[in-house]
Amino acid sequence: MTLPAPLHPVHEDDHLLVFDKPAGLLCVPGRGEDKQDCLSARAIRQWPDALIVHRLDMGTSGLVVMARGIEMQRALSAAFAERRVHKRYEAVVDGAMPLRDEWSVIDAPLMADWPRRPLQKVDPAGKPSVTRWKAISAWPGKPAAAAATHVLLEPLTGRSHQLRVHLLSIGHPILGDALYGDAALQAGAPRLLLHASELGFVHPVTQQELRFSRPPDFVASRG
């Protein structure tokens, strides 16, 4: 079996690693032999002490931090749980959204849609879930999407599929979403147009303020 090319981290030190995960790569192994290749498996081949801290969906690209050793995993996991990590995403959504300087908020509790697992849904009985969003530009129209909008997203909570379900709930699903979108939405882009573009936190050991930024490839390729 041919091994994937070596990983080139955005940041590497004795305590943690930061990667720019490509779309289509799992963060952790899935079920089945065909789903064993993933970011964590590739990282462990180069850094045997690498441990997962958080995840991005397979279709989502962008910044992911991994710990080196169990103590660092605990420290970083606590930072995520206590909302001490800055996370910003970029997405392209179906439809025209109002372009404003201020941020808007989606406050809608989420829970598992059990008959349709792994899908999630908005439900008053669900867990509190909050997302900030701001539309920054119109997106060139495509045959499957007469209007589309480039948006910035900041999840203030970390629920499964939160950004995808929240945007769907206000009538602006993310282009290319094969899980929540219909055929027309899926045809609007060759991939899920969702990218984790910014990640910031205080280094648990050095106490240095770290801030990483990587633009999505779909911004560079539009037109």
Automatic annotation (TrEMBL):
Domain Pseudouridine synthase RsuA/RluA-like: 15-168
Transmembrane residue ranges: none
InterPro entries linked to this entry: PsdUridine_synth_cat_dom_sf, PsdUridine_synth_RluA-like_CS, PsdUridine_synth_RsuA/RluA, RluA_PseudoU_synthase
Annotated Pfam families: PseudoU_synth_2 (PF00849)
One GO molecular-function entry: RNA binding
GO BP terms in the entry: enzyme-directed rRNA pseudouridine synthesis
Family matches, as Gene3D superfamilies: Pseudouridine synthase (3.30.2350.10)
Protein name: RNA pseudouridine synthase
